[in-house]
Specification:
A hairpin with a 6-residue loop joins strand 8 and strand 9. Strands 1, 4, 5, 8 and 9 form a five-stranded mixed β-sheet that branches. A four-stranded antiparallel β-sheet has the order 2-3-6-11. Strands 7-10 form a two-stranded antiparallel sheet. It starts with a helix and ends with a helix. It has two domains: 87 residues; 142 residues. The chain has five helices and eleven strands, in the order H-H-H-H-E-E-E-E-E-E-E-E-E-E-E-H. Helix content is 38%, strand content 23%. The chain has 253 residues and is α+β, with helices and mostly antiparallel strands.
């Protein structure tokens, strides 16, 4: 009896073992139970390339984007720098180009204007038929800079020790300014037309001196315009006009 129970117990145990083994094999082949529990280890080894590739691609894209952005930023900076350089070159002031030629904004050395004198001008003395007993002085700027004709000509005929007075009413509103090549004018009343003048004489040489800004002194060198071979007749009514910008203004006195 006892022996029968032991044999039955062993039989049941063996049957249970077989059943458990069968269930284990079924679970292994199911693909949902054990496979799911073992997924992390397998997934880690299989996903590594994917995981490694995607961040790498993202990093590569980010790097490429960063490089592109940096390149774009660099290009923008270069463009700004070029634009700034171009503006700086363009802003080069017109005054610098004129200064290079030694001139001012008007094409002449306005800021370095000088006083007209014998060394930078040419003076011509021409007796006039009308008005009678008058002589016209024409001074032409032969220099490369603008010059100013201040006040009036200080003329000396022959060996005279003094210069004739100026006709005050002939004073212009502004200083006569001569650009290179331009001319200024003054007239000389040589003698009285009615014969009322005294100490008349004929002179064959003339020196013209130029005033400075103050008008109280002569500056630079004088001019020595030629007179007619027979000379010119003068008396003590001798007078001069202020320098004028036009010839018409000079001979009206």
């Amino acid at each position: 009896m006892s022996s029968v129970r032991i044999s039955r117990t062993r039989l049941l145990t063996a049957a249970a073992t077989v059943a458990f083994a069968t269930l284990s094999l079924t679970a292994c082949n199911d693909g949902s139970g054990v496979q799911t529990e073992g997924a992390p280890a397998g997934a880690a080894s299989l996903a590594s390339p994917t995981t490694g590739t995607e961040p790498g691609s993202a990093s590569s894209s980010a790097s490429s984007s960063s490089s592109s952005s940096s390149s774009s930023s660099s290009s923008d900076d270069d463009a700004k720098s070029a634009s700034a350089g171009s503006k700086q070159a363009t802003d080069v002031p017109a005054a610098s180009k004129n200064d290079k030629a030694g001139t001012g904004s008007s094409g002449t050395a306005a800021g370095k204007a000088v006083t007209c004198q014998g060394s930078n001008t040419r003076t011509v003395a021409a007796p006039l038929k009308r008005p009678v007993n008058h002589m016209l002085l024409t001074v032409t700027n032969t220099g490369s800079k603008r010059c100013f004709l201040y006040q009036y000509p200080a003329v000396r005929f022959g060996e005279a020790q003094s210069v004739p007075p100026v006709i005050e009413d002939s004073k212009p509103q502004a200083v006569v300014t001569l650009e290179p090549g331009e001319s200024g004018y003054a007239s000389v009343n040589l003698s009285a037309t009615d014969g009322s003048g005294k100490h008349g004489r004929t002179e064959k040489s003339l020196t013209v001196y130029f005033h400075g800004r103050s008008g109280n002194e002569s500056v630079g060198t004088g001019a020595h315009p030629a007179l007619p071979a027979k000379g010119v007749y003068i008396d003590d009514s001798l007078k001069v006009t202020y320098w004028q910008q036009s010839m018409d203004d000079a001979i009206m006195w």
